[in-house]
Specification:
The protein is built from 2 helices and 9 strands. It is an alpha+beta fold. It has one domain: 3-Layer(aba) Sandwich (Trna Endonuclease, Chain: A, domain 1), CATH 3.40.1350.10. The strands form 2 sheets. A 6-stranded mixed sheet has the order 1-2-3-5-6-9, covered by helices on one side. Strand 5 and strand 6 form a beta hairpin. The longest helix is centred in the N-terminal third of the chain and has 18 residues.
């Protein structure tokens, strides 16, 4: 357990992250190294400059189904500055994160019997289509 919560990242999640990173790298010219399981973020990406912390997410709904993207606030605190890459059913988009989002709230996940999480809300307008 981490932070009094169960660990939810599976090998299937890691494989999906790798697939998303591979597509992103091929389209953008970035290279990547996937971090160890349960690291603070999922990968390092780079072109010619310094490594960029990167978080990779998959959503099982289409882009635009919700007005914004929600991510755990603690995850954001370890990511900034960095890159967020999200696949909405294969529609891959990315956002450069240079500061913590201003909109923060609490969300209780319907699929887990756990305490509510403090989350950041990121406007979908921040995401660039791959």
């Amino acid at each position: 357990m981490i932070d009094d919560q169960r660990i939810h990242e599976t090998e299937e999640d890691r494989a999906r992250q790798f697939e998303i990173l591979t597509v992103f790298a091929a389209a953008t010219g970035f290279r990547f190294i996937q971090t160890h399981r349960l690291w603070h973020y999922d990968a390092w990406i780079w072109r010619r400059g310094p490594y960029i912390r990167t978080e990779v997410k998959y959503r099982s709904h289409i882009f635009g189904s919700y007005p914004d993207f929600i991510i755990d606030q603690k995850k954001m605190e370890t990511l900034v500055p960095g890159m967020l890459i999200v696949s909405w059913l294969g529609d891959i988009r990315y956002a450069e994160i240079s500061e913590l989002p201003k909109i923060v709230g609490w969300v209780q996940r319907a699929d887990r019997a756990e305490n509510a999480d403090l989350v950041s809300h990121i406007s979908l307008a921040e995401f660039k289509k791959l």
